[in-house]
Amino acid sequence: MGILEVTGVNKRFGGLQALDDVNLNVEENTVHAIIGPNGAGKSTLLNCFVGRLTPDTGTVMFDGQSLIGRKPYEINQMGVSRVFQTPEIFSDLTIIENVMIPSFAKRDGAFKLSPFAAVRAETEIREHAEQMLLDVGMADKKDMDASAMSRGDKRRLEMAMCLAQNPKLLLLDEPTAGMARADTNNTIDLLKQIAESRPITFVVIEHDMHVVFSLADRISVLAQGHVIVEDDPQFIKGNPKVREAYLGDAHD
Amino acid sequence: MTDQATDGFVPTQSKSKGASAGGALGLGKKDLRLFLLVVAMCAFAPFILNPFPEGSGLAQFNAGYPDLMQRFVIFGIFAIGFNILFGLTGYLSFGHAAFLGVGSYAGIWMMKLLTLNVIPAIIGSIVVAGLFAAIVGFISLRRSGIYFSILTLAFAMMSFALAYSVLTPLTGGETGMQLQYFDPRILDAPLPEGQTPRASLFGLEMAASYELEVGRWLFTFNAGYYIAAIAMLIAFYGSIRLFNSPFGMMLRAVKSNQNRLSYTGISPKPYTLAAFIISGMYAGLAGGLLVAMDTQVGAERMFWTASGEVVLMTILGGAGTLIGPVLGAGFIKYFENIVSKINKSVLEGWFAWMPDWMTDVTVTIIYPFVGKGWHLTLGILFMAVVIFLPGGLVQGGQKLATVLRRDRKSKDAERDAAIQRQAGE
Q1: By 3-state DSSP, what share of chain A in percent is helix, strand and coil, each rounded to 5?
Q2: Chains A, B: CB contacts under 8 A, how many?
Q3: Does residue B63 lie in a domain region?
Q4: Which residues cross the membrane (chain B) (predicted)?
Q5: Domain A1-71+203-252: which topology?
Q6: Which chain B residue is nearest to residue A102, measuring alpha carbons?
Q7: What ipTM was reported for this prediction?
Q8: Which of A84, A138, B145, B171 has its CA 20 to 30 Å from the CA of residue B203?
C-alpha cells in the first residue's frame, strides 16, 4: 500500500475534462515524478492533493486518511508540504523568520494564541531553523530580508521551510522552472541529498526530462488528464505510448 | 500535536543563548529602552508639555492641561490597538470608532448601574467592546482588502445610526448619556438630590489636580491623566510583547503572504480574528477611559470621521512600528486642540511689529491654515508624510538619526584625514 493513493479522480472545468479517471499509487520513501505535456493536468492533480481543488469524483488517500474536503492547512498538518512553481515566501520577513514559521506551525498546530510568549526565547525553534538553512546552504544569509533574494535562493528557502516541518510527503511543482543549467544541477543534487538522508516521499511535477530521469524512482505520464503509463524510469523512455503522447507531441 | 511536537528537531546545545540577550520585563534591550523612555515621558508630561511660562505670548502652545493630556494617552491607546490590526496584519478597518463608542456606552452604564469607581467601568468597556469586535470581525473578515474596509465602515455607521436614534433608551440618542444623581448605582450610597456624580478610583476623583507653581510656570498634576497614562503604559507594554511574540510573527506573515501561510499549516482566519478582537478591546479601553474622564458619551464618538482619525494617527506616526501610533495620536490631538485655537486676533498680535499693510497680508496668507483651518495644515502634512516618509514620523526620526550619525562619522573621517595629512607633512 502506498503513502498516497489516488483512485478514479475526475475534475471538470466547464467543458474541459482536466482530469479523467486518474489513478496513482505513490510508494513510501520514493521519488515519484509526474510528467506530461503542457495542459495534461499535472498542476490540477497536484492541487487536488493539497486542498486547493476538490475532485468531482474519486478518492485521494494519504497515509490511510482521505484528503478530500480538507483545507490546505489541515492537509499540511497531516504531513504534506508543497513547493510552488513560483516561490511563495514571506517576503516582508527575514529569512530565518521564514523558516521559523513552519516550525511553529509544526509544534503549535494551526492556531495558537500566545501574545505574551517571546520569539527571542524560542531557542529550539531558532536553532532548528538555522539547521534547515544550513542544510540548503543558506545559513550565512539568515538575517537578510527575504525580499532581497535571487529566485534560486527563494526556491532554496522554500525548500528549507518545507523541510523544517519534517513532512512525510513533499510535493514539488516544477522545482527547476526558469532556472539556469547550473542552478538546476544544484537543485537536483540538493533534492537527491534530501531524498537519501530523510524519510520523505517526493512527488515531483516536472517538465525537464534531465531532472526527471536524474531523480525519479517511478514515473507517471499524464496526457489529456489521463495517466497513460506508470512505470520505472528505464521503461518510460522506450514506451511507445509515451513517445506518441509526450515526446511526439513535443516534436510538433 | 504534542506527541509529535519534537520529532525532526535537532537537539539543542545552548538553551540560554536566546534568553540572555534580553533585558528586564521580558523585553529585549532596545524595547526596554523605548518602554522606559515612554514611561518617563508619561510621568513628566505635565512639565514637558508646559515649556512656556503662564501669561507669555507662547503660553497658548502649552499642552500640559489635564483635558488634553488625557486625550493624548487615551487616543494613544486607541491607535496602539488599531496598529495591532492594521500594522501587523494589514487589514485596514475603517470602523474602529464603533468599538470606542460601544466601550464608552458600556462604561457609562457600569457607572450608572454599579458604582462610580472607574475600574468596573473600564473592565466592562473592554469586555463589551471585545464581544462586539468578535461579531463584527467574524463577519467582516470573510473578505479582505477594500471589501473588508467597507464592511467595517458599514458596521460602524450602523452602530452610529442605532445609537443616534433607534437605541435612544440605551444611548440617549442625540443628547447622549450623562451620569445623574438618581442613577441606581447599587454598590454606592445614594447621592443627595442635585449633586453631580463624579467618577473616582476608590475615592480619588478623576478631576482631582495638584497645581505646582515654579516662578512664572504652572504645572498641573491630574489624577485622571495619571490613571489614563498607567492604562496607556500597560497597553503599550502589551503591544510590545505581542509584536515580539510568535503570535505577532504569524500576524506579519498574514500580511506578507496568506497563501503561503495556509500551505504551511497555519489557519490565517483565527489569527486575524484574534488580532481584530484584541484591537477592539484596546479601543474599548480607550472608550472606557474617555467616559471615566468626562462622564458622558454621545453617538458622534462613533461617526466615520472618528474612525478615519485613528487611521490618520497610525499612518502619520508610522504603521507597524511600536511608538508610531502614539506619536501620531499626540500629533493630531495637539493640532486639534492647539493650532485650532490660533485665531485672527492672535495672529495680528504676533505680526503687529510689521507695517500695517504687511501685517494684513501675512495674516491673510496664514489664517486659512490655522484656527478653524487646522484640518488644512494637517491634510498637507499628512500628504507630505505619506509621499516622502511612507514609514511615518518614526521613519522621519530614523532618517534624521542616520543623517546625524553620518554627519558625525564624516566629521570624524575629516579630522582623521587632517591628522594624517599633518603627520605626512
Answers
A1: 40, 25, 35
A2: 145
A3: yes
A4: 34-52, 72-94, 114-139, 146-167, 223-243, 270-291, 311-335, 376-396
A5: Rossmann fold (3.40.50)
A6: B264
A7: 0.91
A8: B171
